[in-house]
Design brief:
The protein is α/β, with parallel strands linked by helices. The protein is built from eleven helices and 17 strands. α3 (91-97) packs antiparallel against α9 (308-325). InterPro entries: 5'-Nucleotdase_C_sf (IPR036907), 5'-Nucleotdase_CS (IPR006146), 5_nucleotidase/apyrase (IPR006179), Calcineurin-like_PHP (IPR004843), Metallo-depent_PP-like (IPR029052).
Length: 396
């Protein structure tokens, strides 16, 4: 099996449209409730704010204004991160996402963090399509979610969008207690079934799949968070008729699309750090498209004017939660950083806290370094941003 990193201009085999036109796909994954701009040590030396959902809204609206044939997708894990998600069990997140121009999203493992009944409750309030086709009630043929895919037509172009969750990723990262009553089933089997159902009905087939290996979380960033998208490559190689696979869960951005057979694999980094943009262009031959342009764009907050509607909803939720989150809980003389595979202040603090809580009969405590999601700055620590709650939003 040959695996290639694509440069602009590599041909895609897709259905023919009567008129030549650009097709633009904007995508995100693993946004993890980072609704406001924030800093990370490995981008601009931690000196510039990045991300922010109001900024992403502005970007997508600009792209849609330039080209009617523009779609915006997300591959899951929009819940869990800063306290705005944890304190509201995702309600605030869906409220904010309702102001963003999503065309379709799928469900990630963190959407189950407060129980699958809460998943259904919160996602039922979404005003945008949510697709999920391989999670079922146990010992039943009944789907957990009633929409495995959707067809979206723009400017004469029809895209079929399928949503799935990797079985390994589901079982590995959704707690056993939470999974009681539901289960993920063979994503390859169900993906091929839905591709076949869409055949002849759409011009392009896109899968939003939350699968693979979870990310490393580290203050060092860079190469430390890079992991191969082996599961996505395997998935693409085992199905026929899939044009684009937008993946989540690995927190690994693809600097350029990965081509496996006739399928392009795309992904962003986590937390809204960057947004992907793929532009397809019909060329000379029927059934032949090329990648005209691709960009994995870092969202520097100082380069964007926040969308006023999205920002208003974010500000409204922050005001509601302000009384709780502004409480001072501790002080630190130094910044507490996280690391992966070596000693770090924040990991040591977490393990020591577990040891203290366990009592005198416990001699050893271990903490999951992947569950440490934020640095803690030096100085007075509030319950809010960079607090223990945002540092470990999943209660690990």
């Amino acid at each position: 099996m040959k695996i290639k990193i694509l440069a602009a201009g590599i041909a895609l085999t897709l259905p023919f449209w009567a008129c030549a036109k650009d097709v633009t796909i904007i995508y995100t994954n693993d946004l993890h409730a980072h609704v406001e701009p924030y800093k990370v040590p490995w981008i601009a030396d931690g000196k510039r704010d990045i991300g922010g959902w109001a900024n992403i809204t502005t970007l997508v609206k600009q792209e849609k204004a330039k080209n009617k044939a523009t779609w915006f997708f997300d591959a899951g894990d929009y819940f869990t991160g800063p306290y705005i998600s944890s304190l509201t069990k995702g309600k605030a997140i869906i409220d904010i996402m309702n102001t963003m121009p999503f065309d379709a999203v799928t469900i990630g493992n963190h959407e189950f963090d407060h129980g699958w009944d809460n998943t259904l409750l919160q996602l039922s309030q979404a005003k945008f399509p949510i697709v999920q086709g391989n999670i079922f009630y146990q010992n039943s043929s009944k789907s957990f979610w009633d929409k495995p895919y959707t067809i979206i037509e723009k400017d004469g172009v029809k895209i079929g969008v399928i949503g799935l969750h990797g079985v390994f990723a589901f079982n590995d990262t959704v707690s056993a207690a939470t999974r009681v009553g539901i289960e993920a089933r063979d994503e390859i089997k169900w993906l091929q079934r839905y591709i076949d159902e869409l055949k002849g009905k759409v011009d392009l087939t896109v899968a939003l799949i939350h699968e693979g290996v979870p990310a490393r979380q580290s203050s060092m960033g860079g190469t430390d968070v890079r992991r191969a998208l082996d599961k996505d490559i395997q998935t693409a190689s085992q199905v026929k008729g899939l044009d684009i696979l937008i993946t989540g869960h690995a927190h690994v951005g693809t600097p350029e699309p990965i081509k496996v057979g006739n399928t392009l694999i795309l992904s962003t980094d986590s937390g809204g750090i960057d947004v992907g943009k793929l532009v397809l262009d019909y060329k000379e031959k029927p059934h032949n498209f090329t990648v005209k342009n691709f960009e994995l764009k870092t969202i520097y907050a100082d380069e964007w004017k926040p969308d006023p509607q999205t920002k208003q909803v974010i500000d409204g939720w922050n005001k509601k939660l302000d009384e709780v989150v502004q409480q001072t809980v501790a002080q630190s003389p130094v910044e507490l950083k996280r690391a992966y595979g070596e000693s770090a202040y924040l990991g040591n603090l977490a393990a020591d806290a577990l040891l203290a809580a366990a009592g005198k009969n416990t001699q050893l405590a271990l903490t999951n370094s992947g569950g440490i999601r934020n640095e803690i700055p030096a100085g007075r620590l509030r319950w809010a941003a960079s607090s223990v709650r945002s540092r470990s939003p999943t209660n690990w």
